[in-house]
Amino acid sequence: MTYKVLFCLYFILVFFSTPDTPCIGQSSADYFEEEEPIDPEQKLKVDSMAMEKIRDLSKYIAIIGSKNTPFSEANRVVSRALELFAEGSVIGVSSLDKEEVKQYEIKKYFERLMALSYDQVKIQWFDIQYISDLEMTPDGKYVGVVTIYQKFEGLQGDALIYKDVTKKDITIYVERKIMQVEGTHVNFWDVLLGDIVVSETVL
Amino acid sequence: MNLFKYRTGVYILVLLLTFSCKTSQTAKSDEVDEEPQIIRSSDIILVDKELKDTLEGYFRLFSKMDLNDTGNRDAKMEEVFEYFSSPDTPVFFALYNNKGEKYYDKPVTISNYLYYLYDTRQAPHVIQAVKLDESQKKITQIELAIK
């Protein structure tokens, strides 16, 4: 009886001692979960890189919304903009004459932006800053929140028909990953934007 | 009873030895996995100044192009692609070096990088290194860094 117990114990220990080898494309949450957070100097570079993605998005939105942008070009830029977002992310849309804030999937939002019935649309983002610093979560990812102000102007001819300024909060997810490019393993920081929430709309 | 204790002792010893060997193998395996990865210095041919100046000139050009002149943009893209093995040649953005291991922003293709410059109206990077193909004529990888 004792031998059986010992053999069982032996096989259990051997079985569970098999190493977990990280694979290409495996989530960094598994691979880096025991790592210490990155040092402050390196984190600044990751912060800055993540912030740059927000600035890129603001430029993409301005192009997509502009009536000067050809349809095919707008569609191309939509594809680039969608690459910035985590799957399933939504964006809140508000207006001065409605209390309700509608939520749209990001792709749907871009399609609506392209189809707005103004002759001209001008969209500008400003005062972009972190309101919640990137913090490491238990699964090894970093999460932060950036706030932006969006100035929206819709014109018919030269006449300004609608104008508002909206404060929006954007969740940012940052994750260390490994990918294989032409046989080479590359460590990289993957930045994805999450939901965009409207926190205030003013004239 | 003594025989039983002796056998039990032997089994425990075998168990410990085996487990110890396994742990050692695991550690060795991890060492191999955690070797410095990505592009090694031996793989990199530092870019010559003429090529660097030419390509960085193109990058600046794309950041200043008229957003409505897609014909000119596409023609210039074809010119840039002449320097690369394909429009899908990977572009790496170096962020920092941690104990000999480099960390990057998410790589893109040279094609998408040129669109990025064009769409965002900026050329914030300099060329740090390139990797050439066997003929030493076409770029197969390019590494950039923020100015």
Taken in chain order, the helices and strands of chain B follow as HHHEEHEE
The shape of chain A is elongated
- What's the overall average pLDDT of chain A, rounded? 86
Q: Which geometry of chain B do the CA atoms define? A: elongated
Structure class of chain B:
alpha+beta
Q: Which class of secondary structure composition applies to the elements of chain A?
A: alpha+beta
What fraction, in percent, of the residue positions of chain A are helical? 25-40%
Question: Can you describe what's shown?
Answer:
The complex is a heterodimer of chains A (203) and B (147). Chain A has 203 residues and is an alpha+beta fold. Chain A is built from 5 helices and 6 strands, in the order ααααββαββββ. In chain A, strand 3 and strand 4 form a beta hairpin. Chain B has a domain at 45-146. Chain B has 4 helices and 4 strands. Chain B has a 4-stranded mixed sheet with strand order 2-1-4-3. The longest helix of chain B is centred in the first third of the chain and has 32 residues, at 2-33. The interface between A and B is large, with 43 and 43 residues. Strand 6 of chain A pairs parallel with strand 2 (101-109) of chain B, so a sheet runs across the interface.
Outline:
Chain A is 33% helix and 43% strand.
